[in-house]
Amino acid sequence: MKNYYDILGVKKGANEDEIKSAFRKLAHKYHPDKKGGDETKFKEVSEAYSVLSDKKKRAEYDTYGKTFAGGSPHGQGFGGFDFSNFQGFQGNFQEFDLGDIFGEFFGGGGFSAGQRRGRDISIDIELAFRESIFGTERNVLIAKVGMCDTCGGSGAKKGTKMTACTGCNGKGEMRETRNSLFGSFTTTRQCPKCHGRGQVPESPCETCRGEGVARRQEEIQIVVPAGVSDGEMIRMPGRGEAAAGGSAGDLYVKLHVKKDSDFTRDGNNLTISLPIKLSDALLGGEYHVRTLDGDETIDVPAGVTHGEVVRIRGKGVPHGRNTRGDLMVRIDIQFPKKLSAKARELIEKLRGEGL
Ligand SMILES: [Zn+2]
Ligand SMILES: [Zn+2]
């Protein structure tokens, strides 16, 4: 597990200013546009800062060692630090003076290093308890920016050619040197006219106006594996929105598992309550137990106590390869509220026996 405090090189009790200043120093040092920069480190530092600079996330991290921010990790700003979502990133850092660091790096919100990338999308799906245990499949219809079907993404009208882009002389990118507080940087910018392709359609596709991408409905099949928990996220790389001349974003599927009236889950084990008669508790008896795989018969041993657990192996939550947790059957002895005259008489006799 990552230690965000170590990454930023601050003490656990560091205040907001110390965290901010450590981040600025390191962001500057590792920025990928800089000579000697390190994109991996930069992302790591940015991720650490995104958590420790947010009171709520920091408290979660301190308590649980992770954060539970809802929605897409990208939508929240970080998680995977996505350069193309720079607008979203800015949104989370209003208290942080972007003008002095990022404004220069990114040319005021423009996107410099690397390729354009489509937006990440996040959706929520609700699962029945049983589906969360055994896994399931869902087909969902998502309205998103996808590759244009008419032109297959080329942006060209059918039967027409592509020509070299005049904006970048067919190179697809432009170099820019900027002076900043931290020295001068040469950044490579994707050509905005051709979106980095170096070519533009001679006659643009009518559906997408030559962009190669268009907003449309897409049916996506989501395979939910067995044993998922409430709140878990499935990431589907490349199934987010398409970007003209770039790679597609990711799709994040957040799972919401409905509660079951009988079963509760504890790790890989399931628990169910089994009401039994008082006489069976004393003498033992056979009971049918509802499992997720059908009914099972169990022997309740004589002298069982209230709350005792009888374990049925392998009827719990699937995990790993061919392994499953257990079903824990909690004995619930039904003590009679009222006694018939006859029962009363018999129990009086039991009392006479010293029971
Ligand atoms: Zn098109
Ligand atoms: Zn161009």
Automatic annotation (TrEMBL):
NCBIfam families: DnaJ_bact (TIGR02349), PRK10767.1 (NF008035). The lineage of its organism: Bacteria, Candidatus Kaiseribacteriota. The J domain is necessary and sufficient to stimulate DnaK ATPase activity. Zinc center 1 plays an important role in the autonomous, DnaK-independent chaperone activity of DnaJ. Zinc center 2 is essential for interaction with DnaK and for DnaJ activity. Belongs to the DnaJ family. InterPro entries: DnaJ (IPR012724), DnaJ_C (IPR002939), DnaJ_domain (IPR001623), DnaJ_domain_CS (IPR018253), HSP40/DnaJ_pept-bd (IPR008971), HSP_DnaJ_Cys-rich_dom (IPR001305), HSP_DnaJ_Cys-rich_dom_sf (IPR036410), J_dom_sf (IPR036869). Zn(2+) 2 binds at C165, C168, C191, C194. It is found in: Cytoplasm. Keywords: Chaperone, Cytoplasm, DNA replication, Metal-binding, Repeat, Stress response, Zinc, Zinc-finger. This is Chaperone protein DnaJ. The keyword Zinc-finger applies. It comes from Candidatus Kaiserbacteria bacterium RIFCSPHIGHO2_02_FULL_55_25. Binds 2 Zn(2+) ions per monomer. HAMAP family: DnaJ (MF_01152). CDD domains: DnaJ, DnaJ_C, DnaJ_zf. Participates actively in the response to hyperosmotic and heat shock by preventing the aggregation of stress-denatured proteins and by disaggregating proteins, also in an autonomous, DnaK-independent fashion. Unfolded proteins bind initially to DnaJ; upon interaction with the DnaJ-bound protein, DnaK hydrolyzes its bound ATP, resulting in the formation of a stable complex. GrpE releases ADP from DnaK; ATP binding to DnaK triggers the release of the substrate protein, thus completing the reaction cycle. It comes from the Bacteria. Residues 3-65 form the J domain. Its cofactor is Zn(2+). A zinc finger (CR-type) spans 135-217.
